[in-house]
């Protein structure tokens, strides 16, 4: 046993402890046929990233889970890794090149990709090192990267396999295009926000007629690509015009009037302009009616050569020019202010432009069905369950997934185009000739795959798939996936259908979805808002354990949480409480082994039974992944039950002359402390390991000790209930003394009237030590005269304290009278405020409710003070 320093310094402990764990190989997942595996794969953070609070939240939850399962005896494995993050990484390197006066086009594709790899080698390990600072117990020997050789092989195998089954195809479809990132986006990568804009009503003249149709649009510039106007087939207003044409304003091009059920007769004029290349609904209508497709915007969202005189204008400048020209021609009927949902790029927040483009897609309908079935039949469980409904809605309405991206960094699509015959060769190995005609004039597709394509394979690609490796055989399917609800569709859904399609089995059994970390006011954290928090700075100030405990105790599955820096300070104080309690125990130890004594006192049975119950409840809540509740139970037990009560209860024995009693107290103190450290370890791993190593122990490390579980041998319900009666009486006396502002140094006699004198007789010693009672009388009846006595009541006893021994009665009467007067003044102010109709009507409901609550609290305070004054005068 070694002595702990007076003050706990996380900086002096955490790195040394982490090095001890890694050197001991305690994080390593080992295939053991005699053990049940428990596997987690980390949601791979972007290789560009630095640790932010969202990462800290996600990784702490995973670390608590894997440490708990490891201590339960599972063959636990947490696989780490990073994501190549196509767009984000390419942007980072292009920014670096711009500072050198270069662009990627100056370097060329191969040289640029080599430059990205260099950047990855230099900066890519930063976030993994930061995860270690947090205490993450990953098996770092198994660390993977979504573009390492093995993962790249898995990506290519899946692409080719899906292509061969007809589940991947290339086609010209409406896609979401980001003009800033200059790449296609999948539906899941588009975020929607309400924006206020215009709603322009425009006349389209009917050819060879005085009639015209009025259409409305929020994007007038797209009318340059209109190829039709649709009306409902049952709309009698326009029945005579169907199959005729209108002359498209500004472009002087005839376009047909068609009838289609898509049109809502009740909305607007019942006429809808058709722009097949720039609206997904129009695209579908155009396919049914064989309308021409005219693309009028380029990759930068500028008007192209199909836009006539507007060619070269940015989409917003073109909008202004088109509206001005329509107004000049008398064809603009009106403009209304209109709020609508606008799609924006999840990466850069630029407004997304729907446009037709030749892209690669995954057919979702056949894959989505089984991916939905496994959730509906319980093979995969979402925690909390409410996300099942959200998942179901998305899977039932999933569009084909656009998987091609116009980038250089990423998994290049394994498709080669033959110049002579036009055939597309898709191959597991790089071909040298066209598989159809044998020509050597083949060119590889320049696009890369969506980053989420490789991430979707993560639960099995990390284990060496497509090879049938021992790791894959043993650790797949994984046990639980921990991730934010915000990537349920980006990632979770795609992993599910990918696992089912490639492995024939679900990728994980449970999905624990957590919310986002927000600032103290509930606002989303971001650099631009200036409210971001650097977890490394927090760790530097308070220690990793304090940050971890803060994150976990504020968390409930599926819900956002607010981050309060002051709570880190509170949990640093909690760490200090544990440290000081451990030092107290160690300073009083003369024993060198940890085992319970043969004979237990009443308070010993009480603390053991209390611990046993907490171990049971913590185990139950951890099984349900209610980590915040579990952490709260441990906190309350450590702070209140063990430190504030049991340690105080043992002091008479520790300081007494009875050596057997002294040793008995030591043994129980040590046993409960060690078991509590085990219970707390997954949440606060550094301080618990450091203390455990200093205490008498067997074994190598706390992190591989058995996790505490309920034991019938530690269950003493009768003694626990008996001792709770004593504690309730002690608490009642202490509360009453506190209300009367009596210092602990001032002792008084007490009389307990009870039907259970044996219990209170057994607890006589505790009243002197903990309730500051100088002389205790236990009786079955209350005193005949209550004059001069103050009483407190519990469900098992009435306790009487002589007032004169506690306070100066005259001074106390004056003090209480003053407090009554002050409270009455405050109550009068509240009543005036609440009787003011203008305040009640204009103030927000929660403000009025708070003022009413203040008044009720003052009324209750006055009643209590008046009762105290009455007792002093009887």
Q: Kindly state the mean pLDDT as a whole number? A: 92
Strand line-up in the sheet with most strands: 6-5-14-16
Biggest beta-sheet profile: 4 strands, antiparallel
Distance between the termini: 59 Å
Could you say which overall geometry the principal axes of the C-alpha atoms support? globular
What is the tally of helical segments? 28
Subunit organisation of the chains: single chain
Structure summarized in a few sentences:
With 874 residues, this protein is α/β, with parallel strands linked by helices. 45% of the residues lie in helices and 18% in strands.
Task: Describe what you observe in this structure.
The chain has 874 residues and is of the alpha/beta class. It has 28 helices and 29 strands. It has a 4-stranded antiparallel beta sheet with strand order 6-5-14-16. Strands 10-11-9-12 form a 4-stranded mixed beta sheet, covered by helices on one side. Helix 1 (10-24) packs across helix 22. The chain starts with 9 loop residues before the first helix and ends with a helix. The relative contact order is 0.09. The model has no long low-confidence stretch (mean pLDDT 92).
């Amino acid at each position: 046993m070694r002595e702990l320093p007076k003050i706990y310094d996380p900086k002096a402990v955490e790195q040394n402890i982490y090095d001890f764990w890694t050197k001991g190989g305690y994080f390593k997942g080992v295939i053991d046929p005699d053990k049940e595996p428990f596997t987690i794969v980390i949601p791979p953070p972007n290789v560009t990233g630095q640790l932010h609070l969202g990462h800290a939240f996600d990784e702490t939850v995973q670390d608590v889970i894997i440490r708990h399962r490891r201590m339960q005896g599972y063959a636990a494995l947490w696989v780490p890794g990073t994501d190549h993050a196509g767009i984000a990484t390419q942007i980072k390197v292009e920014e670096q090149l711009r500072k050198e006066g270069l662009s990627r086009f100056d370097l060329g594709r191969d040289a640029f990709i080599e430059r990205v790899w260099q950047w990855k080698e230099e900066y890519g390990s930063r976030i993994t090192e930061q995860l270690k600072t947090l205490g993450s117990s990953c098996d770092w020997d198994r660390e993977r990267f979504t573009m390492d050789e093995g993962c790249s092989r898995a990506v290519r195998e899946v692409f080719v396999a899906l292509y061969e089954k007809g589940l991947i195809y290339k086609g010209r479809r409406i896609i979401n295009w980001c003009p800033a990132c200059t790449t296609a986006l999948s539906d899941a990568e588009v975020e929607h926000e309400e924006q206020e804009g215009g709603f322009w009503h425009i006349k389209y003249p009917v050819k060879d007629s005085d009639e015209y149709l009025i259409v409305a649009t929020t994007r007038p510039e797209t009318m340059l690509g209109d190829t039709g106007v649709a009306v409902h087939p049952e709309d009698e207003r326009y029945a005579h015009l169907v199959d005729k044409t209108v002359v498209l304003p500004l472009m002087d091009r005839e376009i047909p009037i068609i009838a289609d059920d898509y049109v809502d007769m009740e909305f607007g004029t019942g006429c809808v302009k058709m722009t097949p290349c720039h609206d997904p609904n129009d695209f579908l209508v155009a396919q049914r009616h064989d309308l021409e497709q005219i693309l009028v915007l380029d990759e930068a969202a500028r008007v192209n050569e199909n836009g006539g005189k507007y060619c070269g204008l940015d989409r917003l400048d073109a909008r202004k020019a088109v509206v001005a020209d329509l107004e000049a021609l008398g064809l603009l009927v009106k403009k209304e202010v209109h709020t609508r949902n606008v799609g924006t790029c999840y990466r850069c927040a630029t407004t997304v432009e729907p446009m037709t483009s030749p892209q690669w897609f995954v057919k979702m309908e056949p894959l989505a069905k089984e991916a939905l079935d496994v959730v509906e039949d319980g093979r995969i469980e979402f925690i909390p369950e409410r996300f099942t409904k959200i998942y179901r809605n998305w899977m039932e309405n999933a569009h084909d997934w656009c998987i091609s991206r116009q980038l250089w960094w990423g998994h290049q699509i394994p498709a080669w185009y033959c110049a002579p015959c036009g055939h597309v060769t898709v191959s597991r190995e790089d071909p040298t000739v066209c598989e159809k005609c044998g020509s050597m004039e083949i060119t590889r597709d320049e696009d890369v795959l969506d980053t989420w394509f490789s991430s979707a394979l993560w639960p099995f690609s990390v284990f060496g798939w497509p090879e049938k490796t021992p790791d894959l055989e043993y650790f797949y399917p994984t046990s639980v996936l921990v991730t934010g609800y915000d990537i349920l569709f980006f990632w979770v859904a795609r992993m599910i259908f990918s696992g089912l399609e490639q492995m024939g089995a679900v990728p994980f059994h449970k999905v624990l979805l957590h919310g986002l970390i927000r600032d103290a006011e509930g606002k989303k954290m971001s650099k631009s808002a200036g409210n971001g928090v650097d977890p490394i700075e927090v760790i530097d100030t308070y220690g990793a354990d304090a940050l971890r405990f803060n994150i976990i105790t504020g968390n409930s599955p599926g819900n956002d949480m607010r981050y309060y820096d002051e709570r880190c300070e509170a949990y640093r104080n909690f760490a200090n409480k544990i440290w000081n309690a451990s030092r107290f125990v160690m300073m009083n130890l003369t024993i060198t082994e940890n085992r319970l004594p043969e004979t237990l006192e009443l308070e010993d049975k009480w603390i053991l039974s209390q611990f046993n119950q907490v171990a049971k409840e913590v185990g139950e809540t951890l099984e349900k992944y209610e980590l915040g509740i579990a952490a709260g139970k441990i906190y309350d037990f450590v702070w209140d039950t063990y430190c504030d009560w049991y340690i105080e209860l043992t002091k008479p024995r520790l300081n007494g002359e009875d050596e057997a009693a002294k040793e008995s107290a030591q043994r129980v103190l040590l046993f409960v402390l060690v078991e509590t450290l085990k219970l707390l370890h997954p949440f606060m791993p550094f301080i618990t390991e450091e203390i455990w190593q200093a205490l008498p122990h067997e074994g190598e490390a706390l992190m591989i000790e058995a996790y505490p579980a309920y034991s019938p041998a530690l269950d003493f319900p009768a003694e626990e209930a008996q001792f709770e009666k004593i504690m309730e009486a002690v608490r009642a006396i202490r509360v009453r003394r506190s209300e009367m502002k009596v210092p602990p140094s001032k002792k008084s006699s007490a009389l307990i009237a009870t039907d259970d004198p044996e219990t209170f007789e057994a607890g006589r010693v505790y009243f002197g030590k903990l309730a500051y009672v100088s002389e205790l009388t236990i009786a079955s009846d209350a005193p005949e005269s209550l004059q001069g006595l103050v009483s407190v009541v519990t469900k098992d006893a009435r306790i009487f304290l002589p007032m004169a021994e506690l306070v100066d009665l005259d001074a106390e009467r004056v003090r209480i009278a003053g407090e009554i007067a002050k409270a009455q003044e405050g109550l009068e102010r509240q009543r005036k405020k609440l009787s003011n109709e203008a305040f009640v009507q204009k103030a927000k409901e929660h403000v009025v409710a708070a003022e009413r609550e203040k008044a009720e609290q003052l009324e209750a305070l006055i009643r209590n003070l008046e009762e105290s004054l009455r007792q002093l005068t009887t």
